[in-house]
Fold this sequence. Notes:
Elements: E1 4-6, H1 10-16, H2 24-38, E2 47-50, E3 64-65, E4 68-69, H3 72-86, E5 93-95, H4 96-106, H5 112-115, H6 126-137
Parallel strand pairs: 1-2
Antiparallel strand pairs: 2-5, 3-4
Helix pairs in contact: 1-6, 4-6
Amino acid sequence: MTGLRFRPHHFLCALGFAGKGYDDGFTRNMAAIVDGRLRGEDGDQVEIEVVADADGICAPCPHRRGTGCDRQAKIDALDRRHAAALGLAAGQRLSWGAAQDRMAARVAPGDLVRLCAGCQWLALGLCTAALARLRQGRNAAPGGGA
């Protein structure tokens, strides 16, 4: 089974995914990655490489422009904040299980207001709720913060 490539902010996006996306193609692709791979039986073992440009989630995005995005400044800011909070760097590899441990230990649900500033999905509360469930399930220390 081949690994995945994620921009830093896509770790938390994958955690909070609940069947919504920019369009049908994007949503199908995200579901295949998240529901089909990461939430599957061996999902915790899936290896993810951190990348600094377009990744598997970006592939069908209507905002993608080559290896970039028509909203590049916003995406770069999201990636910088998420990389710092999660201790991620381009080229690093970790399993989805290790990524979940890292998210649970290093990011509190309230941190998403700052980390995800500018994200259109933040207001739905899906990522906040998913992170709270993850932290509860992984027994993370309360108030970990970034």
